[in-house]
Amino acid sequence: MVTPTYVFATPVLGAQAAVGMTALYGRNTTSVSATLTGPGGASLSGSRSDYVLGFGDLYPAATLKWNHDVHNFMLYATAGVPVGVYDPTRLASMGLGHWATDGGVGYTYLNEQVGFEWSAVVGFTYNFINPYTQYRSGIDAHLDWAISPYLTEKLHIGAVGYVYNQVTGDSGASPALGGFRSRVAGVGPQIGFFFPVADREGYLNLRAYSEFDAKNRLEGWTAYVTFSVEAAERKPGEQRLARPVTLPR
Fold it and tell me: Is residue 93 part of a domain?
């Protein structure tokens, strides 16, 4: 996943404004094994696997960030553009097959003098109808948080977590599925490094989640590696702005 981002030099509504676009390329391998048991006790078993290689959906995003001493606030809006590899008759895909929008707010407390940071972002995702299947997923709510004590000026460790919960039911499903609401939560460790990249500042973050309390949702271990490069020079007294990253949904 690559996310080029442009940060405007001129403030917008007193905030630092930025726009970006996330694009992804990769391989998705999916398999399923199932057993169907009939009323008389006879069973039929089978398995199937599939994989695709290609581009995924595009995710444009815009943010506004305000800084006041150790307090940082953020508004964000993003969307899912269904241009990725998708076929409703296949198990594997690189796209959702439908449009989606997401928006929310974030807060970061960053005290560089004592070396402590914590962040939280809450948002809602609205899913449009899938034109291939006439199925629409419900509205999702998600909370992402991170706690980051700094061991040095360039190194921090801590914990991360998230809660995902579907607040409205799906539509277009068979009556047997009903609203098919889903939920899952995750928590785990993180570590981050700041280091120079030519005349800019690089940042590398590694985090992992152990997921639990899943319903109608995948559950297991997930891990993320994030690398970013931005301008290294900051004005006197200027804080690093909020860095919370919402998870791909």
Answer: yes
Task: Tell me whether residue 241 is in a domain.
Answer: no
Q: How far apart are CA 148 and CA 238, in angstroms?
A: 19
Residue in this structure with the two tokens 């009903």, named with its chain if needed:
178
Task: Scan for tokens 């996310």, then name that residue.
Answer: 3
User: Is the dihedral angle over the CA atoms 88, 89, 91, 92 positive or is it negative?
Assistant: negative
For the segment 104-154, what is each residue's pLDDT rounded down to a tens digit?
999 999 998 899 999 999 999 999 999 999 999 999 999 999 999 999 989
Let me know if residue 171 belongs to a domain.
yes
pLDDT digits (tens, 9 = 90+) for 219-234: 999 999 999 988 655 5
Token pair listed for 46: 């089978």
In a domain, 227, yes or no: yes
Q: How many domains does the chain have?
A: 1
Domain that holds residue 81: 5-30+47-231
Cβ neighbours of 26 (radius 10 Å): 12
